[in-house]
Protein 1
Amino acid sequence: MAEQIFPTGTLMAGKRGLIMGVANKNSIAWAIARQLAAQGAELAFTYQGDKLKRRVEPLAASVGSDTLCDCDVTNDAQMDATFQTLKDKWGKIDFLVHAIAFAGKDQLAGSFIENTTRDGFKSALDISAYSFVDAGRRASEIMNDGGAMVTLTYLGSERVIPNYNVMGVAKAALEASTRYMAADLGPRQIRVNAISAGPIKTLAAAGIGSGRHMFRFNKAAAATQDNTDPMGVAGAALYLLSDLGLSCTGETHHVDGGFHAIGMPQEDALKASMEG
Ligand code: NAD
Ligand code: 0WE
């Protein structure tokens, strides 16, 4: 990651919102949270279970937040409690960040057609796509007009990435949901967008079988000849969640060093990526 400088400003002054999906300091949601906090946003966080509470609590405290909710997105009671907490504390909110994805490990390897089970498909789509619809609806009920929501997606929704498998299908559903949510909430001036990030070394990207190859290949084939910096993702989120993003909605914005735009990598870069 580039030098972690979050210049302070007032782009998010007076705005309050919920960040879902911080697991540790490497989480994309955490880079976004710091960027928003540096611009004056007031934040609340959800975490998934007691094991992650210990990690998220000090991070939240470091940006002046003491509002943390245990929230597994498959648990309706925890979702109810999370949004009730926000309503009780703030009345209204201005933004939502959704940075949550999961598929069973057995679903993320080998043949898509052979290995994708009904339960694996259901659970991946439930946690990784439906949860944005559900959280988005709940957020919209307590959102000021002029609010904004952002989710995180990946190119595997548009093109085949080896082993991404059912997660690619879930991300396609997530991006389509983003467009339908944008249409429904547009009349209230609530904007809904997705950021399609290139591969970033987080917990969710750890333990990918082909991880080393993927980061090397992405670096070689990207227009920037470099991997994706989470700071760029955080900057895009700031744009989309602040008034800088006015009139932008239903969009899937790529922050991937231009990887998505390339049809064929430069020969020398590709060769270098295949060596070693
Ligand atoms: P991360 O592991 O830091 O974050 C993933 C989060 O999902 C964790 O906080 C985890 O607790 C949460 N989560 C999983 N199942 C959940 C459930 N049932 N209920 C509540 N929370 C649950 O990894 P990350 O890379 O920061 O991932 C954040 C988002 O970014 C994901 O949507 C991911 O698909 C997306 N993304 C990641 C990359 C990458 O290469 N890292 C690239 C593009 C998009
Ligand atoms: O969206 C993701 C990963 C999300 C994810 C990660 C895990 C790891 C642990 C979802 N479910 C699980 N389940 C687990 O058990 N990314 C964009 C990162 C990622 O994951 C890949 C990638 C990339 C990029 C998996 C295979 C190929 C490429």
Protein 2
Amino acid sequence: MSEYLSLTFLKELHQLGLAQTVEEEARLSQAFLIYRQELLSWNEHTNLTAITDPEEVLQKHFLDSLSLLPALPDAELTLIDIGTGAGFPGLPLKIARPHWQVTLLEATGKKTKFLSHVIEKLHLSEITVIHGRAEEYAHKEAYRGKYDIVTARAVSALATLLESGAPFCRIGGRLILPKKGDLALELEQGKRTAGQVGARLITDLPVTLQGLADGRRILVWEQQKLSPATYPRSWANMTKKPLG
Ligand code: SAH
């Protein structure tokens, strides 16, 4: 596999305001190469991703994760990524912003095992991997109402994401949810759900990065008050009887 990242990907990093110095470009290149290498080699025995083309990993996993950056402040913050899978979007974001405190929450043990392995390879600190379910951790005092930022990509419909994600958010914190495709109905329901869990939609940002300009957007929700203690309900209830 290539020892280098593609020129396209490097240009996209620049477009995002990343890799502005030679040192930063070298640091990011090395980290993303290691991440891709480990992802694709583990994927041969552990089901982590359907994407196996090296350039597609850069675009559809790394860049797509980094496309959340324009919706996020650069300052120090705490972020939890729910249903992170092989680390998306939380791990590329941590690589781009090493000063953030990132928690990766994932229900499948073979995926958290991969995450712990790749984090060690990347020598990252201030990053925690949790093998567990969002609807359980959201009720634990140490996690509830604590995070500046909650993210989740490709985990479930908006109503479920909001019900399970908003309880992690501190007041004034944000849920940053990437979405693609026709969202009209889901978004109307999502807005009603948000009201029930103390959040409100504040921005709907289109993704304009070359290569990802196919109707992707980043929905930004602000937590205005804490979610009622009854939320989140069980996963079955959230998905079968969604709020909104
Ligand atoms: N966010 C990753 C993975 C998406 S697949 C990406 O975009 O590539 C959805 C992931 O969410 C799966 O790995 C699944 O195990 C995890 N998941 C589903 N329900 C969950 C829950 N209730 N709590 C934690 N993780 C969950």
